[in-house]
């Protein structure tokens, strides 16, 4: 407990002496700076090397789209109803079992229509489907 000089009253000082606190904090910072490089560890390993590959251009995914007027197209071929679309998808799936669909849906389309389209793709037996969006 720090006291004031004798010439003044003998009450205790109410101010905190921050010098020891600063000293302790500087010591902790120095300890941190010294030990931080020792904590990081690295594992040296020899990774296998591979040859550069290119994308398979022949297996482009099918582009399924529904526009603002509810017109459905598969690879820019229009379809009047979902039954015809499902039939076409089943025949294409028979040709290529790894068939992929990229679904483009207009922003103004009600989600129910998109869900119907997704259900049609699922009923056709296609399991690989992705949504295509644009960056804002």
Describe the structure.
This protein is α/β, with parallel strands linked by helices. It has a domain of 70 residues: Nucleotidyltransferase, domain 5 (2-Layer Sandwich). It contains three helices and five strands. The protein has a five-stranded mixed sheet. β1 and β2 form a beta hairpin. α2 crosses α3. The protein is elongated, with a radius of gyration of 35 Å. The relative contact order is 0.11. The model has no long low-confidence stretch (mean pLDDT 83).
What's the alpha carbon Rg, rounded to whole Å? 35 Å
Strand content: 15-25%
Major beta-sheet overview = 5 strands, mixed
The number of distinct β-strands equals 5
The CATH architecture name of the domain at 62-131 reads 2-Layer Sandwich
Strands ordered across the widest β-sheet: 3-2-1-4-5
Q: Given this structure, which CATH class of the domain at 62-131 is correct?
A: Alpha Beta
- Element pattern in H and E: HEEEHEHE
Count of helices? 3
Helix content: 25-40%
Chain oligomer state:
single chain
CATH fold call of the domain at 62-131: Nucleotidyltransferase, domain 5
Q: What is the terminal-to-terminal distance?
A: 64 Å
| Class by SSE composition | alpha/beta
- Mean pLDDT level: 83
Which of globular, elongated, flat, extended, rod-shaped describes the shape? elongated
Low-confidence stretches: none
């Amino acid at each position: 407990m720090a006291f004031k000089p004798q010439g003044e009253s003998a009450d205790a000082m109410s101010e905190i002496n921050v010098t020891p606190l600063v000293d302790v904090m500087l010591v902790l910072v120095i300890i941190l700076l010294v030990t931080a490089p020792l904590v990081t560890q690295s594992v040296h390993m020899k990774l296998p090397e591979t040859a550069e590959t290119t994308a398979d251009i022949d297996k482009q995914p099918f582009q399924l789209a529904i526009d603002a007027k509810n017109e459905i197209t598969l690879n820019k071929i229009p379809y009047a109803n979902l039954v015809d679309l499902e039939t076409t998808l089943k025949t294409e799936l028979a040709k290529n079992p790894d068939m992929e669909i990229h679904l483009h849906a207009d922003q103004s389309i009600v989600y129910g229509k998109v869900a119907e389209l997704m259900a049609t793709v699922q009923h056709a037996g296609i399991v690989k489907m992705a949504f295509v969006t644009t960056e804002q």
